[in-house]
Amino acid sequence: KLKRLKQICKKNNDFVKHAFHLLKLQLKEEHAEVRYSTFQIIGELFVRSHLFRTLLLDQFQEFMDLTMETDFENPLPPPKQVAEKLKLESLAAVKEWNAKYGVAYKKLQLGFDFLKGVKKINFDRPQPVPAQVQQVAEVQLSRKKIIAGQRLDKLEKEMEKTMWEVVNCSVEIKSCLDLLIPTFNNDENNKEPENTDSVTPRDTGLFDRDYKIELNLNEVSSVKVMETTDNVPILERAKDCHRSANRLFIPRVKRWLATAVKYGAPQETVKQLIDIKLELERTVEKYKEVHLLKDSTADGSDSDCDDFEEVPTAQCFVEPLPILQPQPSTSHKQTSNKEDDTTTKKKPLNKIMKKIKSEPGVKKDAAKSLLEGAPVVPYGRDLLVWDKEKMDELRETVKMGTAQEYDVGHRFWTGTSASEGDSGISDAALNSITSRTIEFSGDFKPVTRSCKAPLPNGKLCPRQDRYKCPFHGKIIDRDACGVPVGGNPDQPSTSAAVDNSWQDSDFLRDLESNLPGNVKLGSKKDGKKKGKKRDLNGLSDLNASKNTSRSRLVKKVFNPSSIKRVSEKLDSLDAKRNFDKFGNNFNYALN
Amino acid sequence: MSYCTTLHSDRSLGTRNPRWLCRSIELGRILRLTLSETRIQCIPPNSISAMDLEKTECRYLICAGSDKKITIYDTWKLARDESSQGGLPKIATIGSKTRQKKYMHKSTMSSIQWYPHDTGIFVTSAFDGTIKIWDTNRLRPAETLEINCVIHNHHLSPISTQHSLIAAASADHIRLADIRSSATSHTLKGHRDTVLCVKWSPKDEYVLASGSEDNRVLLWDVRQAKAVLHNLDQHNGDTTASSAAVGTAHTGSVNSILFSEDGRYLLTFATDQRLHLWNTDTGKNTLVNYGRIDNPSKHRYLGMTLYKGGATSSIAFVPSGRQINMLDFYTGAHLRRLAGHFSDVRCCEYNPYRQELYSAGQTSNVLIWSPAEPDSEATVPSNGQNLAPTASSLLLDNWSDSD
Question: Which InterPro entries match (chain B) (predicted)?
Fold first, then answer.
C-alpha cells in the first residue's frame, strides 16, 4: 500500500501536496495508533520529496506538538504505550533528519535546537524526561533530606537532654525491687536445706526413696509483698516510677525509636534506643509481677514484721462463693408458697400443674429423661392453654382467666368480655392466644468460596460473597487459574442467545405492527452498535479501557438521580432531627 | 527581468517617479523573505526582550536580553566564520563583567531605543521602574531616572527639534521625562488601566499615541492642558454599541501601536485579535478589515514594525503568536506569513537598507529574515556559498526507482 502511495506521489507535486494535507488531518486524530502510523508514512515521504519536506517544516511546530508532546496542554492521546513509542521514534527521526538535512533546511535546524535547548530533550539518551519533572523530583528529594536531618538533630538533642531521666527511672524501679524482694538466689539457698532435710526418709516418714515430692513453684511467679511502715516510702517511690515509666518514658522511647528508624539514624543510636526500651519494659514487667498486700497490722508496731519483708508463698485469697442456682419453678412447694403473693394470672397455671401432678403412671426418671430431651421454649400465653383441645373448653378457661384478671370491681371500667359473655371472645382472638409465632431466620452459614476471577495483576479476586461478586458478576466454580469450570461458562452465552431470539427482527416487526402507535423496539440501537464495531478497523478500542468496574460503579453511584435520592433522604433525616430537637421552640418553628 | 527594464525605461523617460523603481525592487525582495543562515543565538533560558535598529545608518542593532545584558550588533558585517554559530558580529556587550553589574537594571528591560538622531545615546527602561540614558562610547549610563512604577514601554520622538522628551508608559498614566533636565516633567492622566504602549507621531512632534489595558487608545497633545486630543472609538460614535464598548478602540487590551510613515494613520493591535487603522487627524476608525490575527500576549508590549512604502505599498510586520504576519498597511491584505519561531514572537525590526527583518522570540533566538534570490525555488539561499554542493543535492527529490 505504501509503495502505491509513493508511486502516486512520485508522479506529480500536486499529489504530494494532497497527500500532505491528508496526512495532516490524520495526524490530528485523537488516537495514538493512528498518529503513529501517520508518522511512519510521513517519515517515508520526508526522505523522498523536497516539497514534502518544505511543507512539513512550514508547520513543524504543529508536527512537534502532535507527535512529540512539546505542548504540555495538549498531551498525546491514549493508548499510552503507543504514545510513548511515537514520542521516542519521532524524536529519533528528528535527530536523524537534522543530521542529514539540517544544513539545507534552516527551520529543521531551528526546531532541533528548540527541542534541545528549550525543551531540554537529551537526544543521545532517547528517554524524554521533561526537565521540570526531573527538577521537581530533585527538589523533593533534597527537601526530604533536609527534613530528615532536622528531625535527627532534634532527636539527638532531646535524647541528650532527657535520656538520663529514662535511665534513672528504670534503675530506680530496679533498685526498689531489689530492696523489696530478696534475690532469687537467696531464696533458693534458704529452701535448699529444707529440701535436703526432707530427703532423709525417716524424717518425712516415707518408706522408700523412690517417692518423689513435687514442689510446684509455678505459682511463685506472682510475688507478694507485705506492706509495712518500713517499706512504704520504697513502695511509693517504685509506684511513682512505674507510673511515670508507663505514661511518659516508654511512649517517649518508642517515639524516638520510630523517628530514628524513619529518618535513618545511625546504627548505634537505634541499638541504644532498643536496649533502653527493652530494659524499661523488663523492669516494668518485673514490677507488675509484684503483688502488694495491705497489712492490717502494719499500723501496729509488730516487731516480727519490722525485721524482714514477708514473702509468702502462693495462696488463694479469694475463695469463690458457690453460686446459688435458682430452683426450677416446677416444684410444687414453691408455687404453693408463692400462691399468696402472685397475682390471679397464675391460678390457671397452678391448676394445670396440679393436673399434671395428679396424673398417675408417670415415672420420675422417665419424666426427667424426657425433660432433658425436650426443647426449651420461653413462657408464652399459648402454653397456658396448650392442652385444651376443644374450643369450648378453651373458651371457658380463657373467660375464666380474663374474668379473674379484670375483675377490678369498678362500676364502669369492666372487662368487655365480662359484659358480652361467651360470644365476646372471637375465634381470631382465640387463635392469637393459642398460636405462637416463632421467627425463622435460618442458620448462619459462613461464606467459604471466593470469586476467584483473574485480576489484571495476576492474582485471583479474593472477594467472598454468597451469590454475586460486585466486580465480576455471578460467582461460579473456577479452577486454580481462575478459569471457569464445568458448564457455567456457557450460561451467559445461552442467555445472550435467548435475548437474541427475543430480538429476532421478524418477531419484533410483528410486535411493532401489533402494538398501537409508533413503537420501535431495540433494532435501531443494535444497528448503531454494529456500526461502531466496524469503525475500529483493527485499532485498539479506547473506550474499552474506560469500561472498568470503577467507572461502572461511578456511573451508578454518581448518577444524578441516585445523588438526589440520597441527599433527599439525608435532608429529611436532618430535618426530622432538627424538628425533634427544636420543634417546640418558637424561634426555630418559623424556619 | 522584463518588468524591471520597463521600470528603468519609464524612469529614464520621466513618466514615473524615480522612487517607484526603488520601491518595486524593495517590495519584490520583501515578498521573498526567507530565513537567513545567520541568527543571534541565546543560551536557552535567556532571550531578547527588546531590540532596536538605529535609524541614521540602519546598521547597529541593539538588543536587551532577559539576563539584563545589552548587546550591540553590526548588521552590515555577516562574519559567519569567526563569531560562533554564524551569528552577527558583536560590537559590544554591557553587563557581562562584574564591575558593570552595578550600572545595570535590577529587572528585565521592557524596551530599548536609540536616540533618533545619533548613535551616541540610547535609552532603556525596565520593569524595576527606572529609565537609563546610556553613553554608547563609554558603555555606562549617563543618567538614571526613577519612575517607581513598572514601565512597559517608552518612546523618544523621532522628529522632535524643540523637545527631547521620553514618553514612558507606567501604570495607568504616561510620564514624560526630559533628557535635558533629566527629570520627569509631565504626567498624562486619562487611562483607567495599565498603559502598555506609547508612540510619538512622526508628523507632529507634540502628538503622542498610547494604548492601554482599558481597551482605549488616546491621542495626546503634550502642549495642551487638556492633553487628550482624541479618544479613538471603534464604532465611530455609533451609540447602538453596548455601553461598555463606548469610547473604546478595541475589546481587548491594546498592546501595540504603529504610526504610518506620514503620521496620518495609526495602526493598533489588541488582544481581541483585531487590528484597527485610525485617521489621526479626525480620530475616526477607517474600518479597514485586517481579518482575525492571533494576539496571545496579554499584559505585554508587542513590537510591530513597518516597511515604509509610501501610500501604496506600506507593509506592516505584525507578530502573531509564533508567526509574523505581513499585512498591507492600508488595505489590510494578507501578503505572507513568516513561520520560523518555536515560541511567541515578542518584537521585530525591519532594516530598510538591506530589506531584512529581525525578529525576537520569547524563549529562543533572534531570527534574521533576508530576501532570497529571485527565481531560486530549488537553489541555495543568497549567502550560502560554503555549503553549496551538498545542500543543493539535499534539496532535490529522492524517489527511489523501486517505488
Answer: Rad28/ERCC8/Ckn1/ATCSA-1, WD40/YVTN_repeat-like_dom_sf, WD40_PAC1, WD40_repeat_CS, WD40_repeat_dom_sf, WD40_rpt
